[in-house]
Amino acid sequence: MSLKSTAALGIQSIPKLLIQQAVPASIGILVMSLNILIDTIFVGQWIGSEAIAAINVVLPVSFFIAALGMSIGVGGASIISRALGEHHHNKAERTFANQITLTFLLTIIVVFFGLFFVNEILPIFGGKGSLFSLAKTYYVIVMYGVPVLAFCMMSNNTIRAEGKPKNAMYAMLLPSVSNLVLDYVFIRVFDWGMMGAAWATTLSYGVCAAYIVYFFVSKKSVLRPKWSAFRLDASLVKEISSLGSVTLARQAMVSITVLLVNNILFSFGGESTIAVYAILSRMLMFATFPIFGITQGFLPIAGYNYGAKNWDRVRKVINISIGYATVLATLVLLFIMFFADQIPTLFTKDAVVNSQTPGALKIVFAALPMVGIQLIGAAYFQAIGKALPALLLTLSRQGLVFIPLLYLLSYQYGVQGVWLAFPISDVISTIVTAFFLNRAVKKELFAS
Hints:
Layout: H1 4-7, H2 14-46, H3 49-85, H4 89-116, H5 118-124, H6 131-161, H7 165-189, H8 194-217, H9 234-269, H10 271-287, H11 289-307, H12 311-338, H13 343-347, H14 351-364, H15 371-383, H16 387-400, H17 402-413, H18 415-444
C-alpha cells in the first residue's frame, strides 16, 4: 500500500487539505447526529417523551465506557500521525496493534461492572421514578454492544490519522443508516418499544465494526501490524494513555455534567425538564457537527506537520481551522434561533416540553460561534503530543468553569440558571484557551 495519501498531509495547500479532511469528517458526524436526532424523534413519537428522557439517562454511562475506545483512538492517532510524519512506520503499526488490545481489554472489564451495578448506577444519573424501568431496558441491551462501539470509535480516529477521511466517513455512515432502518422495523413494525430502540442501536455498532475490519484486512490501510505487535508495550501504553486522557476526561466531564444537570432539573421540574435537556443535548450534537468535523480534520494535519517540523503549515492550519469553525458555527446559530419554536415539535407532542424548549435553546446556543477557538486550541496541544495543557483546556470548558456556574446559577435562578451556565462557561473557557494557544504558537512555531 502506497503512503501517498499520508504524505499529502505535508504537501497539499492547507485550505484544500483541510476541506478534504474535514468535509468527510463533518458529513460523518452530521449523519451520526442526524441519526441520533431522528432516533430521538422516533422514540418520542412512537414510545413517548419519557422514553427520550430515559435514553438521556443511559447515554452518558454507555458513551463514557465507549469513550475509552475513543480516547485510545485519539491518543494513538496522535502518535501515528507524528510517526508517519517522521517516517517511523513500524512505530505506527505497533501503536495501532496496542490500541486494539487496550480497547477490548478495558471496555470488557468496565462493561462487566456496569452491568453488575446497573440498579445502583441508573438512579445516580437521573433514572428515577417512572424513568427507571425504561432506562434499565435500554441500558442492559446497549451495554452488550459497547465494547464493539469502543472499537469503532478507536479505529475511526486511526483511519483518519493515516489520511483516509473518506473511509472514516463510511464507517460513520453505515451504522447511522442501519440504525434508522432497524429503528423503524423494531419499534414501528415489531412494536418492541424501548427494547427495539436498544437492539437497533446495538446491532448498528456491529455494522460499523464489520466495515472497519474489512478496511484493515483488505489492504486499504497502510497499517499492517504483525501478531507480535498486539502485545502491550509499556512505553506506548503510557503515551497513548497520556494523550488519550484528554478525550477520556472530556467524556467523563460530559457524563458528570449530564448526571448533575439531570438531577438538578429533576428536582425543579421532574421528567419533563429532563426531556427538554435531552432535546437540547441532541441539538447540541447536531449543531456542533461542522466544528467537530473541522477539529477532526485539523488533528492529522497538525500532528503530521508538527512531526515533520513544518511550523509554517501548523500555524496556517490553526488559523484557517478557527476561521472556518467560527463562520460555520455562526450560521448554525442563526438557524437555531430562527427555528427555535419549531424544533421541539419534531420530537414530541408534550405541550409542557414544547413550551419550555425554545427559550432554553436560544440561551444554551448563544455563545456557539466562540466554541471553535476552544476546540481547535485544545486539539492543537493534543495533536503535538502535549497532554497536560490539552487536558486542562478541555476540562476548563466541560467542568472547571461549567460545574461551579451550574450550581451557582441554578441556586439563584432555578431551571433558567442551568441554561445560562452553558454560554457563560463557553465564553470564559474560550478566553482562557485563546490566551494559552496564542502563547504556545509564539513560543513553539516560530523556531528556526
